[in-house]
């Protein structure tokens, strides 16, 4: 795109970004600018915003949208480090950021500024007409739920040190990882090109949320994937629709989703006993510990009133869980998993 500033000066801006499929802890945002018809200074800022809030769903107006504690900012050499905790579950989250500039000379030394929940680095560059200058932000993110780390902050900083600014190399590794995965999932159909494009776009969205990296996570299938704030990231029964895709191609990913249910089987049994029923009663909306997360009331942005939410009365999730467990065995013939976990999901008691 082209930005127009004072005196009609034009600045070409081109961005590319990726979250690495090779290393899910890494994300890169590259911004290339070029002065059109002028030369002179330009000021660029990049940083970390720990004040993000979930405010994109109108129906959640009035509910708490701030889920992170106040951040702790640290400088480790040229790396900026932000450490926070989630307010309820106390999961520690660390984001390390490295900012590199190429293609232009700095007019003055960098400045690092902290303002509230934001930490940024600012530099003034001397642009030459037609000569591109590039700002590259490389971020590394770890949480206290990650394995084989000493601490999230230490792991995040060390990962950037290992990368050592090799963003092009990481991009190639990211592309190679997608190519290997896409060989399993890409679909070719005898139809118009748009239909095939739409179908593969849906597969792409699915794999952004559920990939080999999620196999060992204690996580289900969030109804809005990793991108939407709707339903607050809760797990419904969407694995019923995606396991037929994942099971034959990545059975370990499918098994991970079923293990999420198995780990919460005791909560489901307790819910069944509380209603005088045998077996297991899985919740309509599931979260971290398997309790029913469906709110009792919802805000209606059209009527601007609160209304009862009766969707918790949908008690068919357990049937879907049992069906998924049996279908997984039929696809994989994994008798060990069936004996150790799958049978319990099918029987419930």
Automatic annotation (TrEMBL):
Gene3D superfamilies in the record, alphabetically? 1.50.10.10, Glycoside hydrolase, family 65, N-terminal domain (2.70.98.40)
UniProt GO molecular function: carbohydrate binding; glycosyltransferase activity; hydrolase activity, hydrolyzing O-glycosyl compounds
Residues in Glycoside hydrolase family 65 N-terminal domain copies: 5-145
Which residue ranges does the record assign to the Glycoside hydrolase family 65 central catalytic domain? 201-347
Q: Which UniProt keywords apply?
A: Hydrolase
Q: Does the keyword Hydrolase apply?
A: yes
* TM annotation in the entry: none
Keyword Magnesium in the entry? The reply is no
Output one GO BP term: carbohydrate metabolic process
Question: What's the protein name?
Answer: Trehalose/maltose hydrolase-like predicted phosphorylase
Organism, as annotated: Microcella frigidaquae
Organism classification = Bacteria, Bacillati, Actinomycetota, Actinomycetes, Micrococcales
